[in-house]
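Re-run requested by the PI after the first attempt was lost when the workstation crashed. Everything re-entered from the original request form. Ligand of interest: copper (II) ion.
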Amino acid sequence: MDFTLYRQSRRSLLLGGGAVALVSGLPARVSRAASGPLEKRFVAGESRVALVGSPHPETVVWSYNGTVPGPELRLRQGEKLRVTVENRLSQDTTVHWHGVRVPNAMDGAPNVTQKPIQPGESFVYEFTVPDAGTYWYHPHAHSSEQVGRGLMGALIVEEPNSPEVDRDIVWVLGDFRLKDDASIAGGFNNPMEISMSGRVGNTVTINGRVPDRFPVRARERIRLRLINAAAGRIFGLEFKGHKPLVIAFGGQPGEPHPPEGGRVVLGPAMRTDLILDMTGKPGDTTPVMDMFYKDLGYKLVDLSYSDEAPPRAQPASPPAKLPPNTMPEPNIAQAQRHEVTLTGGMMGGGRMMGGGMGGMMGGGSMWAINGVAMPDARMGDMEPILTLDRGKTYILAIDNQTAWHHPMHLHGHSFRVITRNGQRTRYQEWRDTDLMPPRSQAELAFVADNPSDWMFHCHVLDHQEGGMMSVIRVA
Ligand code: C2O
Ligand code: CU
């Protein structure tokens, strides 16, 4: 894949003068009466939004309620959410509440947990949110195109006592492939991209706009919730001149710590919460760089310090650990271990692993989990790769034998990443999606406490639709 090309075309859009300052939000605390569910109506349909901004034309997108990202859902831990989704697209859809441990029937997996919502039909999702954290929602049908055209949004669940910060900010990171007229390029699910990195766009957005600068104040403390809502792009963010602390990953709290190597790496669907102390001076401008792809680093946005007086005389004291969520603790000593092998895709020298050119032509079976490819079209009639006993601890020993990154996501549960490449992980972090580098291993431990059939798949959406999808049954 020639990322350079895409990068340059993004540059030309950026240099066209369409960039804008991100509107700085005030902390949007939930202030609803604690009774009754949070009720929303989502209409999925076509709309026009200013992704790039003037003088570029608006972009025709697929969106929830006309905006990209869709409306931010924000509620308190333990509250109930009820969302009626009306499908005004020309194809079927569902909504998946990524990372939230919902009851199976509310999970949005087409033909596994529900019938897809046909054009003109509606479906009501209703569930309580058991855990605080930063989550998101997106369609789970024709995912590469539906997310790639703009269907996604943030779902924020606040702790009962959220840490003191000056601002609680959400950055939904989007990635679009735009033509020169700012319209979305077609060519979704082409076999070449499926077999490699998946569709990576040329236009990165924060909260649906190509960003230019983000206004901040000296000594301000920001809780920055980052959501990678891209279909295929991996981010590696460096906050130049600043020392962010990771306080949660994948929605789940952990010991506050600096990101490894000073870089916040987020594969598709992954989220992190940072405490970002604004240690610069009034008038400073410092860049946030995305350095993930070798030689393709670019500036995502500038942190732009205002001249306002700092909100506090002294720097804020170190943040405390967030309160724990409600996941049952895996009993590692008693755990049953299952090997899960990832294969497929383009290897070195243009050679396909497994499927060969036959796979290339079809596009639907270019990747496999434990030797089985489950393309989108066959969801619902595939046997589970594993059947687990409810209440027991399991370790999934994942072996990525491919030459590509795969953010592996398990529905309905969160797992601890206990080892990586045979080494114990320092933080034994909870996640629902784990980015597996090429030819790497990881062990994921969790209690199979949520009954029924759950998707386990790669969140590079072209890989998912290209077969890298499976079902794990909790019986
Ligand atoms: Cu966000 Cu099955 O995915
Ligand atoms: Cu993948």
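Saved to the shared folder this time. The chain is about 10% helix and 40% strand.
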